[in-house]
């Protein structure tokens, strides 16, 4: 079972500066639970992709950053939420190279590869919620 | 607005990226760099990313763009100093930076550019 431990932070994602702040916060939480350098880099990069998606496609939103525990392992769990236009075809959006905008189309599929856990829910006209986690 | 300095080193231009880059800085850099290539006739561009702790698809796209635009202006781009954890992450992200040459450090990047210039010089010398 996965249980949240300790404090959790909700950060708003409204500007490009917020994307930078999210990266810094995720890095510091990853360090805190003792993730190795490569794992830190992966989760921070995934966070950067998703935060930018939230900003560019979701019209802004927020991320909840939690430290979670599962048996002897600790993890960083990130929940990105926006009230943007949503994604009509998630399967298509998850494909490498698919992009609805100016990006390279690697945001979603790349973030999934860089995470140990990945889930996405989206309703057109309502918004999108993406949860990722990386474990020690 | 912050700008990234562009230094001239022989036939090459050196850019050291030390801060988190935003869209505005990236656009300014592309403009400044193309101007500088045109005015100096530089044949190579070295982009030192050794200070960057992550490279996401946004920065990756910027590097690809710079390389493509520089190539149009007859200058070769070499990205130098990538941290090992960044390299591992980039490949997993799916970003091979296939349009960009890389070198371990500035010195070896400079050598790549000089070798290219040497090869160009030889080609010219052989022309009747």
TrEMBL record, chain A:
In what residue span(s) does the Histidine kinase/HSP90-like ATPase domain sit? 38-136
Gene3D superfamilies the UniProt entry points to = Histidine kinase-like ATPase, C-terminal domain (3.30.565.10)
Q: Which InterPro entries match?
A: HATPase_C_sf (IPR036890), HATPase_dom (IPR003594)
Question: What SUPFAM superfamilies does the database record attribute to this sequence?
Answer: ATPase domain of HSP90 chaperone/DNA topoisomerase II/histidine kinase
Q: What is this protein called?
A: Anti-sigma regulatory factor
TrEMBL record, chain B:
The organism's superkingdom is given as Bacteria
Q: Where in this chain does the record put each STAS domain?
A: 2-113
Concerning Gene3D superfamilies, the annotation shows:
STAS domain
Q: Which residues form the signal peptide?
A: none
Looking up SUPFAM superfamilies in the UniProt record yields: SpoIIaa-like
Q: Name one Pfam family in it.
A: STAS
- PANTHER family reported in the protein's UniProt record: RSBT ANTAGONIST PROTEIN RSBS, RSBT ANTAGONIST PROTEIN RSBS-RELATED
Identify this protein by name.
STAS domain-containing protein
